[in-house]
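From the shared-data thread, chain only:
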Amino acid sequence: MLDLLVSTLIQGLIYALVSFGVYITYSILDFPDLGVDGSFPLGAAVTAVLLTWGCDPYLTLLAAVAAGALAGLCTGLIHVKLHVRDLLAGIITMTALFSINLQIAGSNLTVERAVDTIYSAHPTMALFGGLSLTYRKLAVSLVIVLLVKLLLDAFFSTKAGLLLRAVGDNPSLVTSLAKDRGSVKLAGLTLANALVALGGSLVCHETRSFSATMGTGQLVFGLAAVIIGITLFRRMSFVKGTTAVVAGSVLYKLCIALALDLGLPPNMMKLITAALFLLVLVASGRKGEEIIHA
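Structure, as tokens:
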């Protein structure tokens, strides 16, 4: 049971990065960005290829972030500059990224055990060398997620972060401040997809593999994690939205892990995910008519 809890916590922390991205697009920007399902495997594809080329593991994280940011920027440009509806803009980017990911890494790519990842690289071993591989994964993932969370909290308290919130809550306010709503949306989508791609990169480091279909359902997962977290802590104003999102991600992964541990077949994973998401929506009273606002 302890091994199950530790592995679930690792997965929950890693996928919290995806939930951060969805939190920004849905909860803050009020933008249904389906491009998330393409940005996630994009980060993994870039990471897998760079690792096989012998690139420094930590540099692959930066490369994945840059690739995800570019994907988000493309979605934003399609929506803002070409005036395509937000939902369609995300679908276009997601569809294009599927082919791009195939070009980058093929349909599947496995990183050999001899290749170092961020969980076995020299800086990690210097800090956490006394831990087993499983607990190194937990420690490194926790450090990365905490760092991202703190940076997001700091960003949201700045003028740029407040403008980002205003775009989803009160667009007219942004206009009254002589700010371009389109530019703010571009920044938000770029940041969100960069975080999602970072999550894909960490998954690649953790599993040492890439699959072209690994992005399927990531938007559903991210939404469920955000809804769980926000619903659980909505009466606790002192709990930041980013903290709630991390908690929601871990809890959602725990539900899936328990379902599989009870004997449900792994090939039913997507069905379990969809069923849990529907249950979360109904239980939280959010049926799709409203987007969460932090």
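Residues 9-212 form one domain.
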